[in-house]
Amino acid sequence: MSVCADGMGTAVLALVCLAFGSASAVGITQKEHKTQAAAGKVNDLGCFVCDTMEDGDRCAIINQSDTLWRTRCNGDRRICTVKRFSYTTSTENTTSEIRMWYLERNCTNRCEPGCIVIGERTKLYACTACCEKPYCNWMSRAGGDFGPFHPILAPILPLITAIAYALPS
Q: 144-156 burial, b if ≥16 CB within 10 A, otherwise e?
């Protein structure tokens, strides 16, 4: 016998039964449900879209008011990103300035901010920044400081991360 039909239901139980009875009809039991308004939401985000391999130094240094690479994002791409690849070289006594090798600005649907540093004498830095406001990826760090670009600080980033994960929450 159904809980909804046993005569013991109150107004609240009737509403719950009505809600669950109609849930299967509209697909709420699926993993993800979007209302028609949410599914039809227009993506009005715009980001700067360029890279240094094709666009050179003009992409590396952008002013917030530049219009050259302003692009509307499509579909579920609702995050602006900046990906920066840099390197340093070291000898026994000196470390070079950080030199940028490649920089890309774009729209994406998924972004994990942070830096990865690889190497000993030649250190490679792969850094990603994310932001969600219109044309926020104009700075080389996408509107925020997300990791060291300094040759002295960058090597200790993995140590800081390991300590942070080891601390009790």
A: eebbbbebeebbe
Rounded to whole angstroms, how far apart are CA atoms 100 and 150? 12
First-to-last C-alpha distance (Å) of the chain: 48
**Whose structure tokens read 């470390």?**
95
How many helices (DSSP H) and strands (DSSP E) are in the chain? Answer: 5, 7
pTM above 0.70, yes or no: no
- Total structural domains in the chain? 2
Check whether residue 67 and residue 28 sit in a common domain.
no
Shared domain check, 140 and 95: yes
Sign of the dihedral defined by the CA atoms of residues 49, 55, 59, 60, in that order: positive
Task: Write the pLDDT tens digit of every residue in 95-154.
Answer: 999 999 999 999 999 999 999 999 999 999 999 999 999 999 998 765 444 444 444 444
Per DSSP, which regions of the chain are E strands?
46-48, 50-51, 70-72, 79-89, 99-108, 114-118, 122-131
Rounded-to-integer distance, Cα 59 and Cα 136, Å? 14
